[in-house]
Amino acid sequence: MRKFLLPAVAAAALVAVGCAGSGESSEPVATTEVEMVKSYRFDPKVIEVEAGETVTWTNEDNFTHTVQVDGQEDHKVGKGESVSITFDTPGTYRYVCTLHSKDMDGEVIVK
Ligand SMILES: [Cu+2]
After folding, report:
1. DSSP character for 11?
2. Distance 83 CA to ligand 1 centre (A)
3. Distance of CA 9 from the midpoint of ligand 1 (Å)
4. I want to staple 87 with a disulfide (CB 3.0 to 4.6 A). Which of 58, 72, 73, 110 is the partner?
């Protein structure tokens, strides 16, 4: 005798998210690794590093993206490639993908 007892609770899991209150949902993440994930995003969008650390962006998407930190040169990053940038000076550095600047931007906060 075969039983198919699928739990009927799966759909209830989506409700309990989003209680932080603030409209800004981009909490800085302490990491030096950023991925360009599918659907034109930098993930995580806002990161926090120590001065002198090197941040690496890796392109996991099927399209070429770029990383251009404010006032610096544009780095083209093809599918499966990565680029690393060292941040020596504390501050907040915004960056964009210049090919998709409306959708793809992020921030590196250097402590
Ligand atoms: Cu892009």
Report:
1. G
2. 14
3. 38
4. 110
- Rounded to the nearest whole angstrom, what is the distance from the C-alpha of residue 5 to the centroid of ligand 1? 44
Round to the nearest angstrom and report the end-to-end CA distance of the chain.
Answer: 62
**Each residue's pLDDT tens digit, 6-50:** 444 444 443 334 334 444 567 999 999 999 998 899 999 999 999
| Cα angle: 9, vertex 10, 12; to 5 degrees | 70
CA of 99 to the centre of ligand 1 (A): 5
What phi and psi, each to the nearest 5 degrees, are found at residue 13? Answer: -75, -15
In sequence order, the 6+-apart residues with CB closer than 8 A to the CB of 63 are: 40, 79, 99
Q: What angle do CA 100, 48, 20 make, to 5 degrees?
A: 85
Residue 91 tokens read as 């501050």
Amino acid found at 78: G
33 and 106 Cβ atoms separated by less than 8 Å: no
